[in-house]
Amino acid sequence: MKILSIVGARPNFMKVAPLHRAFSKHPEIESKIIHTGQHYDAKMSDVFFNQLELPKPDYFLGVGGGSHTQQTAKIMIEFEQVMLAEKPDIVLVVGDVNSTIACAMVAVKEHVPVVHVEAGLRSGDRRMPEEINRIMTDGISDDLFVTENAGIENLKKESIPDEKVHFVGNVMIDSLVYYREKASTLNLLEGLNLESKSYVLVTMHRPSNVDFAEGLRNILDIIKDTASRTKVLFPVHPRTLKNMETFGLLDELKSIQNVTLMEPQGYLEFLYLMENAQLIVTDSGGIQEETTYLKVPCITFRASTERPVTVEMGTNYLLSDLNPDSVKELVIEILDGKSKEGETPPLWDGHAAERIAEILLKKYAKKTS
Ligand code: UD1
């Protein structure tokens, strides 16, 4: 049984790594990795392959940059060639990036089963490119692996047949569980002149926050206020860096006292920085889940979340009014030690990828061997 797993952008690598590891334990499965090249900088891609012990991809499609349409279309054209050469039994896609929907569409047109890992998440906000990618990928997938209960409910509402939907836990948490100890042996704080639980970690990259001047201003405002109370670490995503420069705000960002700007961090480094942070302020999807597992308070600066379990059970706060003043107030409370305890969501136990391997073997191995 040959499975082609697709990776493209940074949040895909830590999801596919545990799947590839689980597949490799079964001699019946031939696991190949296709990297679309959506993210191409060493800091956004190569470092993850090394740290997550992923083998060199079997194919690298080199499709980075361009508009969403150009990116998606180029990935489809290149991936079709891989499909024709490899003739896989299954195409596995993860998450919600452009590479996810592009490769899922090609597979469906070649009549090859599509497996979507991290299915069913919905923010309800169709202006997010990721939301469209999620809806479309789920609509054409044969098996949908879900991380939280809301995912099951969402898929029911969209009339996806129950037998296609499997609640298995969270493969991104598999990676966290697997690498947590290794990350904890890093010693980055000393070099940064920081102590554990004495800084706020910030990440921002969503187009709805960073693609226009007012959004970038809000971020600057939040960072300035936070930095007047404690130290701030800000690894800057390429999109955010580019836009800060375009809108003439980069010098202002650089001049804020108490803020350390960093390049995008490797997987282990970022895990270490999350675990030691007192609070994280972010607009990321995955970080909401990682902080919930780590029980580190997280403020999500977005209008909606597709991961409601992190708010309902975990340590995540959604500040959907997008008012920087609300963030500032909450930052003060949390720095004062008033934050919720949080619980670990069901099945976030480090074994999701193994469950997925078992289910796929049961369903597809007989048909294809
Ligand atoms: C993509 C995903 C998003 C994910 C994020 C994590 C989609 C629709 N979005 O957003 O869900 O949370 O990755 O990082 O797929 N760039 C570089 N170097 C790189 C990668 C990108 O300079 O290695 C530049 C691109 O040229 C572009 C910008 O950063 O100008 C954005 O990259 P893109 O892949 O379009 O989307 P992200 O914002 O990274």
UniProtKB/TrEMBL annotation:
Residues 22-360 form the UDP-N-acetylglucosamine 2-epimerase domain. It is an enzyme of class 5 (isomerase). The keyword Isomerase applies. Keywords: Isomerase. Gene3D superfamilies: Glycogen Phosphorylase B (3.40.50.2000). Its EC number is 5.1.3.14. One of its GO terms (molecular function) is UDP-N-acetylglucosamine 2-epimerase activity. It comes from the Bacteria. The keyword Isomerase applies. Belongs to the UDP-N-acetylglucosamine 2-epimerase family. This is UDP-N-acetylglucosamine 2-epimerase (Non-hydrolyzing).
